User: Fold this.
Amino acid sequence: MRYERISEVSTLNIILSNSSDLPIYQQIADQVRGSILRGELTEGELLPSIRALAKDLRISVITTGRAYDELEREGYIASVAGKGSFVAPRSRELLHESRLNMVEEKLAGAVRCADALGIGRDEVETLLGLIYKEGAQ
Assistant:
């Protein structure tokens, strides 16, 4: 695929937490990945350069580079020498599978929490039904 949209750089809203258990590069990668999966960043969109992002976040270029490397390995972004890093094309099926995986992880955490608190499957399913009925407000 050719990456032509180089005139406008995406504005990323990345929030870093020093108190998080996750390393900073992982926080960046997770937030960029989430923006792509939510459709906030679209296929072919130019991302800030590693240096520009490091400067904006006041962190090391090595850290932002590591985040971009992880995203590229996972297929979320593609880097083109001399042009920058872009949101990579993803098939509808792969995008849907990634979204399902995110929801599955959250639900697995909720099930573990319910189990630890002695709340059974029937009650969890009832809660889930209520949440859907209320529109996940």
In short: The longest strand covers residues 77-80. Residues 1-9 have pLDDT under 50 and may be disordered.
